Amino acid sequence: MWFKNLILYRLNQWDVTPEQLKEKFSAHALQPCSGLEMQRTGWIPPKEGEAAFVHTLGKQLLICLGAEKKLLPASVINTICKARALEMEEQQGYKPGRKQMKQLKEAVTDELLPRAFAVRRRTCAWIDTAAGLLVLDAANLAKADELVELLVKSVDGIAFTPLKTEVSPSRAMTAWLAGEDLPSVFTVDRDCELRAAGEENATVRYVRHTLEAEEIARHISGGKEVTKLAMTWYDRISFVLHENGQIKRLQALDLLKEQSDSDAQDDAFDADFALMTGELKKMLPAFVEALGGESTAAAEPHYRRSTLIPIDPE
Q1: pLDDT for position 305
Q2: In angstroms, rounded to a whole number, what is the distance separating the alpha carbons of residues 278 and 255?
Q3: Domain limits of the chain?
């Protein structure tokens, strides 16, 4: 159950126990969409076959947001609307106007929704209460915001902010490829993206390609900055660092997989969770340190209670 993506938050206030968290989540459990609903979100058990909404392993917690969405392609709605519009034109002697077409589309949508197929997806988050970290396995900020929104709606008295570093990822990655020493625990791999500032946003991408120092230096001297860079930590975990600080394509390498196989227990889920959190608890501090350490500047907006409206930290 290894995460594939990492979006990091700093826990500024976390006074809830796992038992309290389970109770609060149960009030916001995922329910199937009703007949006329397009989408619903709610908490689901992280571990298949368990009823608990929070999976605990020491001071490590795993939670999971579920989202159910109806599949109703616009092409299907448009096809039916066109047929109904022709019928209306024959009956009334003229083509339906914009208002009629809008009403027709809404009526067709309401008619089809109860019969539409529903699909589910999940977004998991790891809470390290000892280190004060909230780590989301989300491919983009939109999915992260869904979990964040429901978390602050479900639990009172918590506060967290996006984790920021003193040096921006783009600046650090550009410096490393320009010749500045990279921390020894990390190595640069063969995927990279550089983009120029300005309206044109000229972009150069390297995919499974050796990054020649002179060639990269020419791009950097021409005004391009590194926006994505594939890296490896201690020959154990590979990932792609993005300019906004997100980590994507996280993958355990062969050395770590061999350790996982040799340490396999009856409960593979717990074994994987323990191995993942154990490794990331060592990698993430090194990652933050490589970017100049955690920012000491004024905190970003805090998220509290049942609102996403930014408020000043107390």
Answers
A1: 41
A2: 15
A3: 7-68+118-164+300-311, 74-114, 169-290
